[in-house]
């Protein structure tokens, strides 16, 4: 407490010029600041500023899944603004609370196992869950699990709100999260044997490819019924005729708003300071918000109607288990576990702690266990599964500060933004095209992450064959996502078990990343290794 009354305790001797001055051509580059380790003393003001920086870096990733999944369209829940505002707030609060569990390292009494990493490993809603959720919601509407309005020909003309779909998603994710908890007790070397970069790289690449398509739909004006350019009705304009300055899907003005966000992100990365570069996605979104607000595209009524404060469980959802989604969800959890190992390894590296040995292995085990527990708790907190956010490793590297106080400050800002729901409702007021310019860039980063993982391969003949076999159906059904939808239509009975198995088979095959992952895993285990594969086995086990 005595330090809080001194300049040294608040500001210290940290070089703020390194953090804040822009990167302009012709000007002298700022010398790097001194490295601040996990246990080094950190001035309070520096901790608060860097915690806010971590918060901004992950903010877009935290709010994107609930924004998209709760929105309009055949693959989403079509919820009203009251529910959507709650889900954004719940996501912020959940990520703040569960990040503290992930960062706080302690030994489980009576065992040799740990919980948490003891590093700045913040968590957020995993993007990888979105393809499974979207496929599940689409089948729920088709099977009348979710309500809809149909024409005389039986064609769905309007998708009605379906909160029970979200309850089914949460129940399924909570059930499947047990797998990740069990995986945390499996040695990392065994996991790398089962899920080498060849398998995870293909899977992440296909997930990114699917998500980029979703982002482009929003960039054009929205992913609801307006995307089909109906000749009449409430959706002849996007997102609907009641929206401010509504235009048809794909209008040049919508394209321009999204492009403004996209080009702003690029400019912030080229010319911005270290602080601005770490928050470039949010800053680009703010630029798009300002321009769309001044030109009359922002729905301010959403902000006015939002409550001042909120918390978890203000809205609840009936829990159930959607059995067709279980196998794709298990694949997702295996992928999240392997990704967590790579993210935690990278965090150890930039934090200046061991990247091998018993302490490192307990950080990996504790981090994966915390991710599994967090995914279970997230469902109870009305939020989809959690995963460790890799982008915050970049903040640690940029700021050269690994002190945990900054991570806890980040958690405070996330919870604060979630509790004051007026802040969360701002994201609902932003036009879909502006959000699309941001989310398409975010999703492209997922695609690039998959390509980066694949770049570690030596691309032997065996690797090329497994990749080609996996991509045959994986990429094919990502591009043509209803390819298998008519293969099992011969059965016309009412047996719920048989119908459930048919839907499960369709979801597995039509979810490109799921079928690709299953093919890659099986072929990787059964195909004999050639001499060149054995020589390269060491380098192929590079962390994700």
TrEMBL record:
The record's section on Pfam families has:
Xan_ur_permease
PROSITE patterns of this UniProt entry? XANTH_URACIL_PERMASE
Please state where this protein is localized. Membrane
Q: Where is the signal peptide?
A: none
Q: What InterPro entries does UniProt report for this protein, alphabetically?
A: NCS2 (IPR006043), Xan_ur_permease (IPR006042)
Domain of life the protein comes from: Eukaryota
The membrane topology noted for this protein in its Swiss-Prot or TrEMBL record is: Multi-pass membrane protein
Q: Where, if anywhere, are coiled coils annotated? A: none
User: What UniProt keywords are attached to this protein's entry?
Assistant: Membrane, Transmembrane, Transmembrane helix, Transport
Q: What is this protein called?
A: Xanthine/uracil permease
> Which organism is this entry from?
Basidiobolus meristosporus CBS 931.73
């Amino acid at each position: 407490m005595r330090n809080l009354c001194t300049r040294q305790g608040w500001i210290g001797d940290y070089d703020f010029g390194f953090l804040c001055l822009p990167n302009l051509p012709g000007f002298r580059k700022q010398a790097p600041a001194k490295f601040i380790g996990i246990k080094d003393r950190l001035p309070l003001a520096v901790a608060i500023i860097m915690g806010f920086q971590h918060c901004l870096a992950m903010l877009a990733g935290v709010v994107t899944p609930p924004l998209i999944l709760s929105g309009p369209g055949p693959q989403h829940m079509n919820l009203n603004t009251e529910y959507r505002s709650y889900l954004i707030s719940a996501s912020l609060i959940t990520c703040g609370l569960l990040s503290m569990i992930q960062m706080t390292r302690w030994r489980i009494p009576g065992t040799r196992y740990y919980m948490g990493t003891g590093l700045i490993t913040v968590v957020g809603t995993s993007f990888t869950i979105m393809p499974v959720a979207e496929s599940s919601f689409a089948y729920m509407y088709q099977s009348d699990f979710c309500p809809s309005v149909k024409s005389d020909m039986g064609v769905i003309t309007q998708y009605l709100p379906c909160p029970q779909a979200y309850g089914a998603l949460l129940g399924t994710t909570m059930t499947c999260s047990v797998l990740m908890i069990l995986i945390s007790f499996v040695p990392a070397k065994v996991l790398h044997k089962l899920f080498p970069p060849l398998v995870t790289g293909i899977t992440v690449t296909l997930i990114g490819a699917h998500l980029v398509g979703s982002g482009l739909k929003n960039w054009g004006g929205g992913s609801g019924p307006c995307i089909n350019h109906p000749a009449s009705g409430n959706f002849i304009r996007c997102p609907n005729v009641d929206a401010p300055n509504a235009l048809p899907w794909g209008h040049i003005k919508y394209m321009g708003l999204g492009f403004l966000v996209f080009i702003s992100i690029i400019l912030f990365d080229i010319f911005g300071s270290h602080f601005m570069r770490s928050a470039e996605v949010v800053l680009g979104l703010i630029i798009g918000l300002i321009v769309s607000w001044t030109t009359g595209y922002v729905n301010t009524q959403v902000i006015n109607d939002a409550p001042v404060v909120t918390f978890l469980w203000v809205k609840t959802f009936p829990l159930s288990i959607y059995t067709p989604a279980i196998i794709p969800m298990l694949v997702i959890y295996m992928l999240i576990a392997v990704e967590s190992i790579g993210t935690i390894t990278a965090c150890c590296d930039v934090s200046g702690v061991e990247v091998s040995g018993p302490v490192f292995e307990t950080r990996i085990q504790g981090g994966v266990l915390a991710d599994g527990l967090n995914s279970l708790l997230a469902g109870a907190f009305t939020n989809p599964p959690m995963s460790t956010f890799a982008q915050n490793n970049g903040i640690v590297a940029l700021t050269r500060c690994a002190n945990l106080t900054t991570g806890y400050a980040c958690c405070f800002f996330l919870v604060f933004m979630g509790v004051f729901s007026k802040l969360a409702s701002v994201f609902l007021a932003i036009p879909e095209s502006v959000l699309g310019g941001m989310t398409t860039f975010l999703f492209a980063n997922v695609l690039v992450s998959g390509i980066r993982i694949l770049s570690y391969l030596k691309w032997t003949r065996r690797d090329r064959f497994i990749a080609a076999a996996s991509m045959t159906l994986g990429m094919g059904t990502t591009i043509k996502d209803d390819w298998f939808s008519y293969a099992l239509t011969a059965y016309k009975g009412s047996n719920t078990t048989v119908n459930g198995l048919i839907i499960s088979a369709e979801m597995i095959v039509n979810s490109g990343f799921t079928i690709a992952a299953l093919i890659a895993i099986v072929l990787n285990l059964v195909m004999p290794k050639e001499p060149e594969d054995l020589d390269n086995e060491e380098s192929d086990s590079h962390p994700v």
